[in-house]
Amino acid sequence: MNNITKDRLATAMFWLGAGLVLLILGTLIAYIFYHGIKSIDWKFITSPPQSIRAGGGIGPQIFNSFYILILTMSISIPIGLLGGIYLAEYAGRSKMAEGIRVAIETLTSLPSIVVGLFGLLVFVNITGWGYSLMSGALALTVFNLPFLVRVSEESINGVSRELAAGSLALGATKWQTIWAVIIPSAFPSLVTGIIITSGRVFGEAAALLYTAGMSSPALDFTNWNIFSPSSPLNPFRPAETLAVHIWKVNSEGIIPDVRRVADGSAAVLVMVVLAFNFCARWLGRLIYRRLTAE
Q1: DSSP per residue over 102-139, as a string?
Q2: How many angstroms separate the CA atoms of 264 and 271, rounded?
Q3: Would you give the DSSP letter of residue 227?
Q4: 293 pLDDT band (50/70/90 cuts)?
Q5: For residues 240-266, average pLDDT
Q6: Burial classification of residue 117, based on how many CB atoms lie within 10 Å of its CB (0-12 exposed, 13-18 middle, 19 or more buried)
Q7: Nearest to 109 by CA among 85, 79, 143, 75
Q8: What does the pLDDT read at residue 77?
Q9: Half-sphere exposure (Cβ direction) of 262: Cα atoms closer than 13 Å
Q10: Do residues 262 and 249 lie in contact, with contact meaning Cβ atoms separated by under 8 Å?
Q11: Domain map of the chain by residue range?
């Protein structure tokens, strides 16, 4: 077999692998949309669920999913970025740094149910917060932080060292070089890691069962007092996310239209994740152009 044949065979294998991935993904999305899109309307998206009769919606669950995403990422992104900067620029290959990397890899492989039980012990019981959005957000932070630290470290290490050396040669300090040169150059990879982490937050259910809870109080969306139990902005209230709601209606099956609610909820979840990914990538490219003056 000559080199040209080997090259064509390898290229065909690469195209076949990519095609299989797209085929599996497209089949999965098409199946979810086929069964769920007919159940979606404005009432279904905005109204609260019904526990006894048919006709329930998923409005509070959608809001809870976005709210816990904001809480989680507002905690995870700064800590993950600072941890990645430390490992990439300051830690080097010391024993402590290697110990941190081993700990991060170990935490990355933890099942989400274990993180949920840890959150139940620490954030629910020890802190006294009970089942709440904050408990769920902190549990998801523990779950996602190792991945964010690793992505941040790899993104920063992928930046050309000549850029950093040129900045230092012009008289910039190390921190100025990191903030003004390295971070903007690593921004596309950082955005990709943040998008993947955000998608995991949307789809996570096991860790939230033991921390955020499986029910939500009746919410008054005209009440913006964050200390009120009925306020949607109260971070210390129980909250059922959309992924938890899908698991709950399928496992309990106490409503007559459980299939309709489950299929519609799954389709909405997929659409939200897709829309979030597209918007986040568009915003990431816009910020990258501003940072790099393209």
Answers
A1: HHHHHHHTS-HHHHHHHHIIIIIIISS--S-HHHHHHH
A2: 11
A3: T
A4: low
A5: 83
A6: middle
A7: 143
A8: 93
A9: 14
A10: yes
A11: 1-39, 41-292
The top-level CATH class assigned to 41-292 is mainly alpha
Residue position matching structure tokens 């809480």: 71
pLDDT score recorded for residue 52: 45
Euclidean distance between the first and final Cα of the chain, in Å? 46
**CA 174 to CA 259: how far, in whole Å?**
57
Helix (H, G, I), strand (E, B) or coil at 189: helix
Return the number of other C-beta atoms located less than 10 Å from residue 176's C-beta: 13
Of 53-57, 123-127, 183-187, 188-192, which one has max mean pLDDT? 123-127
Q: What are phi and psi of 146, to 5 degrees?
A: -60, -40
Q: What is the DSSP letter of 2?
A: -
Token pair recorded at residue 95: 């024993």
Residue by residue, DSSP assigns 26-63 as HHHHHHHHHHHGGG--HHHHHSPP-SSSS----HHHHH
Please check whether residue 228 is in contact with residue 236, taking contact to mean a CB–CB distance below 8 angstroms: no
Beta strands in the chain (DSSP E): none
- Judge whether residue 91 has pLDDT over 70: yes
The structure tokens listed for 255 are: 């409503």
